[in-house]
Design brief:
Elements: H1 6-24, H2 26-41, E1 46-50, H3 54-59, E2 71-73, H4 88-93, H5 99-105, E3 114-118, H6 125-136, E4 140-145, H7 148-152, E5 169-172, H8 195-216, H9 232-242
Parallel strand pairs: 1-2, 1-3, 3-4, 4-5
Helix pairs in contact: 1-8, 2-8, 5-6
């Protein structure tokens, strides 16, 4: 029986989006996972970036129990999250030309590394410049975006392109333009965003595949364990010691 409550409708919508990822994004998920496994095996470092709420999915990959220890957050002050005041400052900074390049130039990113860039719309200056400048440095780029924005909105950066146009692999979240799954009588605006749920699940599917890919090659994936289970902290200390030159969040 269908649940027509707002909660039921939202959960049904989210489940539908996740099923689409499973059925339609298997190939790019595998390609992104292979690229991550190659980077780990070849001695490269992993980084993730997202602006505003897209940063939630980026942060979900970093220092995470069950996740790869080598994933580092590429943070841009004022852009990561909504902890700045006013919160609208972060949105404004996404449109500042040159900021992404300055961040990359002062970051540890180097040739042979990999950067995951998350931007729902992919239309602003920050993600496009981040991708183009990173690739110019010899960094592989995985873009996580909604391809629908490229068809239904105009780019908001000087190149006239979208994030999807500057990536080695593109993961399409399938989120509709506007990121609101529900409408309701008496409510003027659509509501109930699903991009965080879907994007996080999409990236965790990639990371799970990357870990299994490494194991299939005979390479122990550098995974973290929960610090709240017996032996977890000792395990994590060993992993961080072994891979300390590729982990930047502990320094």
């Amino acid at each position: 029986m269908s649940d027509r409550t707002p909660a039921g409708q939202f959960l049904d919508a989210a489940i539908g989006l996740l099923r689409r990822l499973r059925d339609e994004e298997a190939r790019p998920i595998a390609a992104a996972a292979t690229m991550i496994a190659d980077t780990v095996a070849d001695g490269g470092r992993l980084f993730s970036f997202g602006a505003g709420h897209s940063s939630l999915a980026a942060q979900d990959l970093v220092y995470r129990a069950g996740g790869l220890a080598l994933m580092n957050l590429l943070a841009v002050p004022g852009v990561v999250g909504v902890d700045v005041r006013p919160a609208t400052l972060g949105s404004a900074l996404e449109r500042v030309e040159g900021l992404a390049g300055t961040v990359l130039d002062s970051s540890p990113l180097r040739e042979g590394d990999l950067l995951v860039i998350i931007s729902l719309s992919g239309r602003n200056v920050m993600p496009v410049e981040m991708a183009t400048r990173a690739r110019a440095k010899g960094v592989k780029v995985i873009g996580v975006t909604s391809v629908a924005y490229a068809a239904e909105t105009a780019p908001r950066n000087p190149s006239g392109t979208f994030l999807k146009d500057h990536c080695d692999v593109v993961l399409d979240s399938g989120i509709a333009v506007g990121d609101a799954e529900l409408t309701w009588e008496g409510v003027s605006a659509p509501f109930a965003p699903a991009s965080t749920v879907v994007t996080s699940a999409l990236l965790q599917a990639v990371m799970a595949t990357a870990a299994a890919t490494l194991a299939d090659r005979g390479v122990e994936p550098p995974l973290l364990r929960s610090g709240n289970v017996d032996g977890g902290r000792a395990w994590n200390t060993q992993v961080m010691t072994e891979y300390g030159d590729r982990i930047f969040y502990q320094h």
